[in-house]
Amino acid sequence: MGSERYFSLSGKPAEVTMPGIPAEAKKVSTQIDDSIVSGTLFNQVGWYTKPFDAAGLFKHESDELLIFAGGDIEDPENLNAEIELQLENDVLTIDKTGVVFVPGGCAHGNLKIKRMDRPVFYAVCHMNTGAYEWTPTEVTAEKGTYAGNFVDGYKPVSGKLPEAPEGFLQLLIWLDGEKAPGAPYMELVWFKSVNETGPAPHAHDFDELIGFIGSDPEDPENLNAEVTLDIAGDIVHVQNSCIAFCPEGTIHSPITVPALERPIYHFSIGNGGDYVREGNKGNSNIYKPE
Question: Which domains, from first to last, does the chain contain?
Answer without folding.
Answer: 2-283 (2.60.120.10)
